[in-house]
Structures are given as structure tokens and as C-alpha cells.
Amino acid sequence: MSNSKIMIVDDDPDLRQALRLRLRANHYDTVNAVDGYSAIAMAYKEHPNLIILDLGLPAGDGFIVLDRLQRDDKLSAIPVIVLTARDPQSSEQRALQAGAAAFFQKPADNAELLDVIRATLSQSGQGAVLPS
Amino acid sequence: MNGKSSYVLLIEDNPGDADLVRLRLVEGKSAIDVNCVNRLSDGLASLQEKSPSVILLDLNLPDSQGAETFRRVLEKAPDVPIVILSGQDDEALAMKALHQGVQDYLVKGAISSSGLDRAMRYAVERQALLRSLEMSRKQQLEFKNQFLSHVSHELRTPLTCIHQFATLLFDGLAGEVSAEQRDHLQTILKSVNQLGAMVRDLLEASRAESGKVKIEPHCVSIGDLIRLAVSMTRSLAYEKQIGLEIGVDARVPFVYADPDRTLEVLINLIDNGIKFTPSGGSITVQACLVPTEPDFVYVSVTDTGCGVDPAAKALIFERMYQDPNSIDNSRKGLGLGLFIAKELVTLHGGRIWVVSEPGQGSTFTFTLPLYSLAKLLMPVIVKDDALRDAVVLVKVSLMSRSKSPRGNWKETCRAALERLQRCVYLDKDLVMPPMTAPGPLQTFFVVASTDLARAEIMMTRIREQLGKLPEVNGTADLEVSASEVALPDPAAGLTLEEQVQEVAERVTEMAQSALSTECNSTEKK
Q: Which of B149, B152, B168 has the CB atom closest to A18's CB atom?
């Protein structure tokens, strides 16, 4: 059985790397996207089980990505967890209304983030394979 | 006065004085359109229709006297310059008016045409100057907020990077770590957390200052919040070997407060106590009722620390105040914690203060309003000075199918409450403030002034409206039920207030017992 695949969308290469190492250590496969445009293209190509999305992105910010994911029949079922440096008071409600499954402000607590990833995957039925 | 805006509103009831002023106005060089009214109410109505360039105002009118007169005009037209026409004997009042925003005053009987013209000109100029000052103040504040918001956002990215890689190392994901290395990494992480808290406080303080913080009051147990705050700060206290005690009077009823914000205040005060208390000391968090202020609960955080210098007592709630005697001098923080606490408490309608002797420790106390269902019920279940005929308690339960729902669940509950508000008649039904119980079950209560049969209509509407939430029947279940509230016996001779109080108590009892049976059944599942 294969691992769940998580797509990391963040324009900061160091943050992408840190998150990739963390997710791999928890038995997730990862793919990357560096901006809003490639996020959509990559979602089509890779069919990730879950997307971790930064809001401040070049070429279409996170809200545009959320909106396009929601509108697309092939992509709307993929749960999105927003992970951003932005202030929750100005962005959390908006992100959740736009369809995000959860909102975390950077730096997020790793254990909490992993818990929510696990719960979201099992809730959406995307994570048939529960990582240990 | 010249230019396009030469319309003057003259509010003066003495026909002789009015004519005189009108004459002086016409004698002036420029053409002026004068509207003269002799009652304040007419003047206020006229302001509604057309905004004058100046208001000439007599203070003693048939329908308003003295200071009240200019206050009402200022309230109605804060941007229009006012010149007062004062009698010879009430110059003191005219001076008072100047302090409160009136631009100038003229003493009746000594008004010359040129004097009047000049007074009006200057009044207009000063008002414009004030307006532009106010505008630039607002712009600066807005700029500062944007700047801080930008800075804190930009600081977070490198901060996150340090945090992420330090935790990767700490968790051994990049190879084995020696005990000494772990110690060093822990120090890095501690500093990262401090930096993160500073960045957060910076934004929070600027937001509080510009009035952008909103509170969402719930009916909530202050004891629960204190226990939560203490559990969240326990490791910090433990590290410094400071005891952390709780003393909550069991009789303290629910408070009407924003749970997140109250938690923030408590944590700020406890953090502050830990900072100024040496190892071996203790901090006690208490909640109690005080007879002199029956509508509030007193919440206090007492430490055995260095105390507050008497001279500093008034200053410590100010922004950026830092105690020069802090024992932890190398890590002072930004000095925003108490400022934020004060702003949040004030938003709730409470007060905050400190009692302290140098070297004897300090007690920070704040007040929060008690939750009074009777007060909220009064306007909805009373009509024509009597209780309505029937009152029903409608229970709306929203149950998430996930055991640990997160962010979006909170959002669903908020949306449900909003929809619920639209299903009721505001003048005879009350959607009770949510009783906060974190978890997959959210229960709302509506007190409806109706009988069980007619409550069905409301319940159908609620099922329909809340059923439209995408989560309901997807990842959450909805349950709506109603039960009658027994009303007090009219023969018992209770006053109306006592009757409402009794209904409130019954409703509270019913709601609480419904909640506790629900909690039990959830746990059993």
C-alpha cells in the first residue's frame, strides 16, 4: 500500500524543505509547488491527497488557489490546510469560508499540524492508508 | 464670508437679536444666505437637509438650555463650525463650549459687522484645520498599523524557518543528537518562542490601539478559563520553580465574556507574574464575587514577586512600559502585555488595576461582567408590564461526526448562530449567548415567547435554515427540540423583576441539565 501524498505550496525554498523532511519522517510522500499557477497545474498532475497551502504566493495568492481548487470538479475534493505567516484575525475566517479545512499560523506546532493532517486525511476518505 | 458656501444657519429665539444679527450679516461685504430658526429642534431638522458653512447658536432656546444646546448641535453636525451668541452674563458657559469643540463666541449687544464676519471666517478656517489634522492623524495610525502588520508578517518567515529546522534537529530527524546539543537546541527554541510572542504582541497592541479588536461574548465559566490558562503556563512556572495555585469561589456564576480574549488576559497576567517572581515564589489566580459590585466577577493574579514601585503604578498599563527593576532584565519583552490586557478588559466593560508594595508581591485584579440571563430576557418575555403567556426553550444541537473537529468547525458554529438569529423575532425571542463547551457538540438555545404548538413553526424554520449549511448532513448532524418553561404563579405576588429572574433561573437550569445529559451521552459514545 502506498503512502498519502501531500502537496506543499510555498514560495520559500527553506520552508518547503523543512516541511518536506518533517512529512517524510512521518511517512507521507510530498510534491512541491512554488506559486499559485504551478499549484493548480501540479494538483492536476499529481492528484495529491492533501494540500498544504501558503497564502502569500507569487502568481496568484493562496485565496485564488483555494478558489480555483473549489471550482474545479476534479480538485474540489482535495482537502486544503492553510499554513501562513499572515495574521489569523484577518485571514483565518476568510480562508475557512473559502473552503480550507484548517488554518495554521507559522510557525505552527509540528505535533498539532500532524494531528490535523491525519484527521483531515481520514475525514476526507483520502487517507485510506493511515500512516503510523 | 465668500465663495460658494455662504449659507449660515442662525438658531436664535429672540426676534430682536435675530434681526440684529441678520442685519450685521447683510452689512458685511459678501452675500450671505441666512436661515433663521427659533427652536433647536427646527435647527437640527434643518441641518439634516442642508449643511451650512457656519452655525450661529443662541444657547437658551425654548426647547433646550445651556450646555445641552451646543452638545446636541455638536453631536448632530460635528464637522460644521459653531459660533455661540452668548449673553453678557454667561461667558463662563461660552468658555466651556469652546473647550468642548465650539469654535468661537460673540457677546450679544457687542457684535459688529466686521467682528461677526471675522469670527465666522476664523471659525471656518479653524474647523478645516482641525479636520485635516484629524485626517492626518488617522492616516498615520493606519500607516503604522499597515507597517506593523507587514513587519510582523515578514518577521514570521525567517522565524518559522529557524523553528522548523531547530525542531528537525531536536527530534533527531537529521541524525542523532547528544544531550548537550539537545540543551542548546532547546535554548534556541525557547528564544524563537519568545520572539514569536513579541511579534504577536506588536500586532495585537497596534490593533487594540486603533480599536480594531472585536470581542464575541459568550456565557462562559471563568473557573474553566482560569484552569486552562494555568495549565498553559504551568511548564513556564515549573521551569522557574514557581508554584501556580488556583482559588475559584464555587459560587461564581458564568461570566459574559469572549473566552479567547479572557484567556489572553489571564495568560498575560500570569506570564507577567512569572517574569517578576523569583524562584521558589508562587502565583495564585483567584475569582470571587464582591458585594459592592454585584454585576461583576473579580479575577486576580497574585504573585510573591518584587512588587510594583508606587510611582510606576499608573504607568505599568501603558504601552512599552518596562520595569527598570525587573529581575529578568536581559529578557524584558516589549512591555505590551499589560497594555493589551487593559485594552481587552476595557472592551468587556471591566476594569483592571494593581495593588502592590515593593518587595511584597503584587495583585493584579480585573473585573468581568457576570452573565445575567434575566437582563437579556427582560425585553423579550415582558410585554405591557407583564410576563407573556407562554415561554418555550428551543434547543438546537449541532454535532460534528469528527471527534476532534478544528478551525472549520468553529466557523460552522459561527455560521449556524448567524442563521439561527435570522429564524427568530428579535422583539420576543432570544438566542442565548453560546455556552462555550469546546468539542464536537455545539448547542444553542432560543427562548421563545410562544407556546409549544407555535414553536413548531420556528423549529421548522430553524431546521430549514441550518439544514442549508453545507456541513449539516455531510459531516455534522442537526437536532432541534423544544420544551415548555413553567412560568411563575401570578398569585405569588412577585414583582415583574422577580418573575423574570425566576424564568431566567428555570431556563438556565433546563439548559444546563440538557447540556450535561448531552455531554454524558457524547462521552459514552
A: B168
Count of other CB atoms within 10 angstroms of residue B253: 15
Q: Can you tell me the distance from the alpha carbon of A30 to that of A8, in angstroms, rounded to the nearest whole number?
A: 7
Q: Which helix (H) or strand (E) holds B199?
A: helix B179-209
How many other C-beta atoms lie within 10 A of the C-beta of residue B514?
17
Residue of B nearest to A19 (CA): B164
**Rounded-to-integer distance, Cα B438 and Cα B446, Å:** 20
Nearest alpha carbon to residue A63 among A89, A99, A12: A99
Cβ <8 Å between A119 and B149: no
User: Residues A42-71: pLDDT tens digits?
Assistant: 999 999 999 999 998 887 789 999 999 988
d(CA B54, CA B106): 14
pLDDT digits (tens, 9 = 90+) for B198-245: 888 888 787 777 777 778 888 888 988 899 899 888 888 888 899 989
What are B166-186's pLDDT values in tens digits?
999 999 998 999 999 998 998
Q: What distance lies between CA B229 and its chain's CA centroid?
A: 21
**pTM of the complete model:** 0.62
Nearest CA in chain B to A94: B411
Question: Residues with Cβ < 8 Å from B356, sequence gap 6 or more?
Answer: B307, B308, B313, B362, B363
Q: What is the largest CA-CA distance in chain B?
A: 98
CA distance B397 to B435: 12
* Distance (Å, whole) CA B61 – CA B41: 10
ipTM (interface predicted TM): 0.85
Closest CA relative to residue A54, chosen from B407, B157, B168, B167? B157
Closest CA to A19 of A114, A87, A123: A114
